[in-house]
């Protein structure tokens, strides 16, 4: 066995606590209070709302969609879990507060002891990453991110490559999962997972993003099989037409075993970083388009809620989840006369902080 093959075998054989059996009574939403980053107000120095996920869950509880007893509790990804994708060298760099300050774009972290940075910043990110991995398995079971972070480099508030990890775990551990399609609808190009899967023909990437903003990674664009570049101020009609046309085209071109849907809300009109002009109703319709496309084809879907830099995005995410449920596109309904369970949803992270709504 070659060194490369031996390394791959070690990755597959490591024991993980992330692939757990989930009670059938649970709604397929993966979340943990540990997702939310709060520490001396430092989280307010970044435009992303680091408590967004807790607010989404609060709204869903208010609508009596969720209770504490039927949420799937996310677990923290261990170093062994992270090594499935990341290098030891990269993970060791995160033991330097200056590196984390650069990745998260919160300069004052530079002056904090690393044990505090680990506890207050990286542990939540590792829990979000664990949630995304769990959500991928949940999507497959129920049926029947950080998109700027690659294996050896973080950026754009993304310290761990949760989308890449979720896909690699599925490829290595779940029989019958051999192809994945990433539909990345965050306003920013998903350069992290694009770099990770640049030479991997098992992964098809569709990316719809504002061509004028971060990261502008020309090298990573080579991995995109269906590229849709938008201009400043793109509005609902043009946007939704392109999303529907290209998502249908992507899923017709290659039928995957799972769809990873990066549902960033930084496309919302007024977002300080996205530069697009999509309405709340447009975001809800966009999510419906993707779920219906997957549902018609019987493809499990993992949804990560990704970027979004306005306070009202949490309410919009909750409203979209409720709408998908009302439309019969998500939920924890067991087998019945209509056929398999409906698509699930899981909260996690991906792309300039994201929550992971794992859906099937």
UniProtKB/TrEMBL annotation:
Coiled-coil ranges (or none): none
Histone deacetylase domain: residues covered: 46-320
Catalytic activity: N(6)-acetyl-L-lysyl-[histone] + H2O = L-lysyl-[histone] + acetate
Main location: nucleus
Gene: HDAC11
Record-linked Gene3D superfamilies: Histone deacetylase domain
GO molecular function: DNA-binding transcription factor binding; histone deacetylase activity, hydrolytic mechanism
EC class of the enzyme, as a word: hydrolase
Species this chain originates from: Denticeps clupeoides
Name this protein carries in UniProt: Histone deacetylase 11
GO biological process, one term: epigenetic regulation of gene expression
Protein purpose: Responsible for the deacetylation of lysine residues on the N-terminal part of the core histones (H2A, H2B, H3 and H4). Histone deacetylation gives a tag for epigenetic repression and plays an important role in transcriptional regulation, cell cycle progression and developmental events. Histone deacetylases act via the formation of large multiprotein complexes.
Enzyme Commission number(s): 3.5.1.98
Binding partners and assembly: Interacts with HDAC6.
Keywords recorded for this protein, A-Z: Chromatin regulator, Hydrolase, Nucleus, Repressor, Transcription, Transcription regulation
Location(s), subcellular: Nucleus
Similarity-based family: Belongs to the histone deacetylase family.
GO CC, alphabetical: histone deacetylase complex
């Amino acid at each position: 066995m070659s060194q490369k093959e031996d390394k791959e075998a070690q990755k597959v054989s490591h024991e993980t606590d992330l692939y757990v059996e989930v009670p059938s009574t649970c709604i397929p939403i993966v979340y943990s209070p540990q997702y939310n980053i709060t520490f001396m107000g430092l989280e307010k120095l970044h435009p992303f709302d680091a408590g967004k996920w807790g607010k989404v869950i609060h709204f869903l509880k208010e609508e009596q969609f969720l209770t504490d007893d039927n949420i799937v509790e996310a677990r923290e990804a261990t170093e062994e879990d992270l090594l499935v994708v990341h290098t030891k060298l990269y993970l060791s760099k995160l033991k330097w507060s200056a590196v984390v300050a650069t990745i998260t774009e919160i300069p004052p972290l530079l002056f904090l002891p690393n044990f505090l940075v680990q506890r207050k910043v990286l542990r939540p990110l590792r829990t979000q990453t664990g949630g995304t991995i769990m959500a991928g398995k949940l999507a497959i079971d129920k049926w029947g991110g950080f998109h700027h972070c690659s294996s050896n480099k973080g950026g754009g508030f993304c310290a761990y490559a949760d989308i890449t990890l979720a896909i690699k775990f599925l490829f290595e551990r779940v029989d019958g999962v051999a192809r994945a399609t990433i539909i990345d609808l965050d306003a920013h190009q998903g350069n992290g997972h694009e770099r990770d899967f640049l030479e991997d023909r098992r992964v098809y990437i569709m990316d719809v993003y504002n061509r004028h903003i971060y990261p502008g990674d020309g090298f990573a664009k080579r991995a995109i099989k269906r590229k849709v570049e938008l201009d400043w101020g793109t509005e609902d009609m043009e946007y939704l037409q392109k999303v529907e046309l290209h998502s249908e085209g992507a899923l017709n071109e290659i039928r995957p075993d799972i769809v990873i849907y990066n549902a960033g809300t930084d496309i919302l009109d007024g977002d300080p970083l996205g530069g697009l002009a999509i309405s709340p109703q447009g975001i809800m319709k966009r999510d419906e388009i993707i779920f219906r496309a997957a549902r018609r084809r019987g493809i499990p879907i993992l949804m990560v809620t990704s970027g979004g830099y306005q306070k009202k995005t949490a309410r919009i995410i909750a409203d979209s989840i409720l709408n998908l449920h009302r439309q019969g596109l998500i939920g924890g309904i067991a087998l019945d006369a209509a056929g398999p369970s409906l698509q699930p949803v899981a909260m996690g992270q991906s792309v300039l902080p994201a929550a992971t709504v794992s859906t099937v």
